[in-house]
């Protein structure tokens, strides 16, 4: 089954380029395009794609508002959203992730990373590239809301703390398993437990909690 994608960008040439890069992938199909966030939300709610790829800066309803409408805390059946931006220090990235985005990448990321991000989101994972996303998460967590991060429902175990730190540094499940010398299924079990204890809906929220509580320091993405 192909991964169905709705993409939104206010520049037609960018949409065309993204569609061409995605459509050449044998397992990815672009099923809808929009030039603004409002149209993207309408399309996504009607088509129910596996992944929504949204530009942050769009006229009218921007990518942050669209993300919140499709994947925000109040959405009962959230869709997977990946936001895309031109600037690696865009001040809206943190807000987009807080709004429910599962990950993000830069427009010059290239076809391999683009398709990887789409596949990760469709699989319920998140693309948190250590070289870009983890750095931005740490930077924007430091300037985010002043309210303290919520305490976990139950104390984290030592192993959960290790998995938490690895996820926040951008490690995939396979990389976490190799790094900690545990099985892939064990990693998934720990991540499920972390989500339950932290009230997180995905890996991005787990990573953001780690930064907000200083479990992982800025510049420690290596």
UniProtKB/TrEMBL annotation:
Signal sequence, renumbered to the chain: none
UniProt keywords, alphabetically: DNA-binding, Phosphoprotein, Transcription, Transcription regulation
Ubl conjugation in keyword set: no
Domain of life: Bacteria
PROSITE patterns listed in its UniProt record: HTH_LUXR_1 (PS00622), HTH_LUXR_2 (PS50043), RESPONSE_REGULATORY (PS50110)
Residues annotated as domain HTH luxR-type: 149-214
4-aspartylphosphate: residues carrying this PTM: 55
Ranges of residues in domain Response regulatory: 4-122
Coiled coil spans: none
Keyword Transcription regulation attached: yes
Protein name: Response regulator transcription factor
């Amino acid at each position: 089954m192909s991964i169905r994608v709705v993409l939104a960008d206010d520049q037609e040439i960018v949409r065309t380029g993204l569609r061409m890069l995605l459509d050449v992938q044998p397992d990815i199909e672009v099923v809808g395009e929009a030039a603004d966030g409002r149209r993207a939300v309408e399309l996504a709610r009607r088509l129910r794609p596996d992944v929504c790829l949204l530009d942050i800066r769009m006229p009218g309803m921007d990518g942050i508002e669209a993300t919140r409408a499709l994947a925000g805390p109040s959405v009962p059946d959230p869709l997977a959203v990946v936001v895309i931006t031109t600037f690696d220090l865009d001040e809206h990235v943190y807000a987009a992730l807080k709004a429910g985005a599962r990950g993000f990448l830069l427009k010059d990321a290239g076809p391999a990373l683009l398709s990887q991000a789409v596949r990760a989101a469709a699989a319920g994972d998140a693309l948190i590239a250590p070289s870009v996303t983890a750095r931005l998460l740490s930077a924007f967590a430091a300037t985010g809301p002043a309210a303290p991060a919520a305490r976990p429902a139950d104390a984290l175990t030592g192993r959960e703390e290790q998995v938490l730190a690895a996820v926040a540094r951008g490690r995939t499940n396979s990389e976490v398993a190799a790094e900690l010398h545990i099985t892939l299924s064990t990693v998934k079990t720990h991540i499920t437990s972390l989500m339950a204890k932290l009230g997180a809906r995905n890996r991005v929220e787990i990573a953001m909690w780690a930064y907000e509580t200083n479990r992982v320091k800025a510049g420690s993405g290596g």
